[in-house]
């Protein structure tokens, strides 16, 4: 014998359907609201949230990145591009032999997994709590070293500049350098096309040498 069809929303008499619909609305009125007023009210992230990366500095302003590319090799999404270069006494960016001359992270590829920061031997690379990374252009999603490099805190001098006198690279990692030595000044970044003071003076009076030399 055939079973009697059970009554469903579709098989209810026509006048009951709207009432059933209002029942759903009525129940929802007493539930906790999930609406977030973003971007006016931003949610606080967890302390160890994986957000935008940051390239850190030593307390005197020198960069921690040594251009070793380990972060790039560890990245499963091939999102990091690094080119290392040698420091010189005239143009020094990090305490040791090498520094990261070019550093890029492509946020169109990055999945914010954090494997790169685990791979970094100097703790140069860490992640911040910043999560607003959306953009309408792929080019804008490639963050350069200038965008990723940490800002200058008190006691820091912008790179390039000389190592703290009387110390070596190991002293930086032992935490013995706590700020730039008195009198530390930023060097001329010839590799970035800056012009040394003597050469700049040939530009004439209209273009003072001091303004030609520094400016990043
Ligand atoms: S967080 Fe993950 S995907 Fe993003 S750059 Fe680092 S290793 Fe690559
Ligand atoms: S961020 Fe760290 S792992 Fe990446 S190149 Fe610099 S020092 Fe090496």
From TrEMBL:
Keywords linked to the UniProt accession: 4Fe-4S, Cell membrane, Iron, Iron-sulfur, Membrane, Metal-binding, NAD, Oxidoreductase, Quinone, Translocase, Ubiquinone
Signal peptide: none
Residues the entry annotates as binding [4Fe-4S] cluster 1: 65, 68, 71, 120
Manner of cofactor binding, per the entry note: Binds 2 [4Fe-4S] clusters per subunit.
Domain 4Fe-4S ferredoxin-type: 55-85, 101-130
UniProt GO molecular function: oxidoreductase activity
The keyword Ligase is assigned to this record: no
Catalytic activity, as annotated: a quinone + NADH + 5 H(+)(in) = a quinol + NAD(+) + 4 H(+)(out)
Chain intervals for the UniProt region annotation (Disordered): 196-216
Topology class, membrane: Peripheral membrane protein
SUBUNIT field: NDH-1 is composed of 14 different subunits. Subunits NuoA, H, J, K, L, M, N constitute the membrane sector of the complex.
Family: Belongs to the complex I 23 kDa subunit family.
Function: NDH-1 shuttles electrons from NADH, via FMN and iron-sulfur (Fe-S) centers, to quinones in the respiratory chain. The immediate electron acceptor for the enzyme in this species is believed to be ubiquinone. Couples the redox reaction to proton translocation (for every two electrons transferred, four hydrogen ions are translocated across the cytoplasmic membrane), and thus conserves the redox energy in a proton gradient.
NCBIfam families: NuoI (TIGR01971), PRK05888.1-3 (NF004537)
Name the UniProt record assigns to this protein: NADH-quinone oxidoreductase subunit I
């Amino acid at each position: 014998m055939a079973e009697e069809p059970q009554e469903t929303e579709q098989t209810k008499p026509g006048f009951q359907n709207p009432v059933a619909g209002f029942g759903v609305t009525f129940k929802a009125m007493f539930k906790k609201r999930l609406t977030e007023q973003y971007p006016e009210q931003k949610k606080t992230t967890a302390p160890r949230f994986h957000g935008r990366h940051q390239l850190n500095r030593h307390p005197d302003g020198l960069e921690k990145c040594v251009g070793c590319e380990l972060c790039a090799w560890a990245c499963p999404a091939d999102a990091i591009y690094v080119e290392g270069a040698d420091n010189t006494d005239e143009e020094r960016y990090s305490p040791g032999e090498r520094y990261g001359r070019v550093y890029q992270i492509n946020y169109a590829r990055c999945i914010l997994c954090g494997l790169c920061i685990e791979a970094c031997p100097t703790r140069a690379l860490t992640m911040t709590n910043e999560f607003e990374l959306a953009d309408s252009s792929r080019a804008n999603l490639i963050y350069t070293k200038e965008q990723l490099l940490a800002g200058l805190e008190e006691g820091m001098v912008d790179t390039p500049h000389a190592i703290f006198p009387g110390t070596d690279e190991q002293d930086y990692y032992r935490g013995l350098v706590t700020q730039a030595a008195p009198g530390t000044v930023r060097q001329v970044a010839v590799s970035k096309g800056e012009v040394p003071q003597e050469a700049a003076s040939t530009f004439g009076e209209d273009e003072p040498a001091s303004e030609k030399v520094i400016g990043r």
